[in-house]
Write a structure and sequence with these properties.
- This protein has 2 domains: 235 residues, no CATH class; 103 residues, lipopolysaccharide transport protein A fold.
- 59% of the residues lie in helices and 18% in strands.
- The chain has 12 helices and 7 strands.
- It is a multi-pass membrane protein.
- Keywords: Cell membrane, Membrane, Transmembrane, Transmembrane helix.
- Pfam families: LptF_LptG.
């Protein structure tokens, strides 16, 4: 047990050191990018604030890379100091020596998913809000609630608030919809209720619509008009509406199930968010696979292994598995794979492949 804690402590030190280096590198790169983007419109302190908000998300996205590099560093260090040889001489197999690092990888993954994920979601949302505030052009905002779908669009200085009870999966048709337009710098000046609203290239096409003027009219009902079909200008597109849900990573994992239910009740497809949720739950398995991949190539005694080639092979295989995982997620988001298969099969397959590699090279 003492040996397991020793290996675990060494692995954790390497992990924290490498994570710090990558976080510092990401901070410097993103700082330059934010200065280029907002340097002329905001102060340097605000740019630093934006960079710090982006830092948790950038670090979180490279956890698999940090894990495999930490495992490689640990195994090379143990091999060069002959501690692995001593461990084997004491009757412990190479696989048993990995119990400590594997346990730490599981702990890190659990903390990342349960605690760092909500932090990343909060900082990402705040960064997006600041970016919209600094680069505001009267755009639109979308939200899903128990009352239905709410959307705000801006056109020619005026704002229009749209509410619909539901929509079709591709966000091109809204049902039981109402439009409330606001005069520039003033209050509401028109309200429209329609059975449905279809989004086309040049705006909304409303069917069975009724319009009430809300300006200086004393009796809006008396001045109301009905239309079998009514066209309203809009700068929105279907892709734009879907994009305003934001990235699934911007939603805390604890809130994702209820958000997914809200999307489905509103008529949207929640496939992207389901795949992301399941991928986050499978994150511990993938990090363990990264530890085993690194160990499979670098745990051999230093005198018997070409260290440089072994490190290169481990990193390349790790990147390959990471690519396959992301590719499967894309297929799941596009509906070409079942979300559960897209999220869980690559990490499980990576774990089995890495385990077989360790057994073949260390135990076989």
């Amino acid at each position: 047990m003492i040996l397991h804690f020793y290996f675990a402590r060494r692995f954790l030190k390497f992990f924290l050191a490498i994570a710090f280096v990558f976080a510092l590198f990401f901070f410097m790169v993103d700082l330059v990018e934010q200065l280029r983007k907002f340097g002329e419109s905001v102060s340097f302190g605000q740019v630093i604030h934006m960079t710090l908000l982006n830092l948790p998300g950038g670090t979180y996205s490279i956890l698999p890379l940090v894990t495999i590099l930490a495992a490689i560093s640990l195994c090379i260090s143990l091999a060069r100091s002959s501690e692995l040889v001593v461990s084997r001489a004491a009757g412990r197999s190479g696989l048993a020596a990995l119990m400590g690092p594997v346990g730490v990888a599981l702990l890190i993954a659990g903390i990342a998913v349960a605690m760092l994920n909500p932090i990343v979601a909060a900082t990402s949302k705040r960064a997006a809000d600041l970016e919209q505030e600094w680069d505001s052009d009267g755009g639109s905002v979308l939200s899903i609630s128990a009352e239905g779908l709410w959307l705000r669009q801006g056109t020619e200085g005026s704002q229009t608030v749209i509410r619909a009870s539901r929509t079709n999966p591709d966000a091109s048709v809204l049902y039981d919809v109402s439009f409330v337009s606001y005069a520039p710098g003033g209050g509401p000046d028109r309200r429209i209720v329609a059975k449905s609203a279809r989004l086309e290239d040049n705006g909304w096409v409303l069917t069975d619509a009724k319009s009430w003027p809300l300006g200086d009219t004393a009796n809006p009902e008396q001045a109301a008009e009905t239309f079998a079909e009514l066209r309203l200008p809009s700068n929105l597109t279907q892709d734009g509406i879907r994009d305003r849900f934001g990235e699934p990573s911007a939603i805390p994992i604890w809130e994702l199930p209820s958000f997914i239910r809200g999307l489905e009740e509103a008529g949207f497809s929640a496939r992207r968010h389901i795949v992301w949720l399941q991928s986050e739950l499978a994150q511990p398995i993938f990090l363990v696979a990264m530890v085993l991949v690194a160990a499979g190539f670098t745990m051999r005694p230093a005198r018997l292994a070409n260290t440089g080639l072994a490190v290169l092979a481990a990193v390349m295989l790790g990147f390959g598995l990471y690519y396959v995982r992301n590719f499967a997620q894309i297929l799941g988001e596009n509906g070409q794979l079942n979300p559960l298969l897209a999220a869980w099969v690559p990490p499980v397959a990576a774990l089995l492949l890495a385990l077989g590699l360790v057994l073949q090279m260390e135990e076989g």
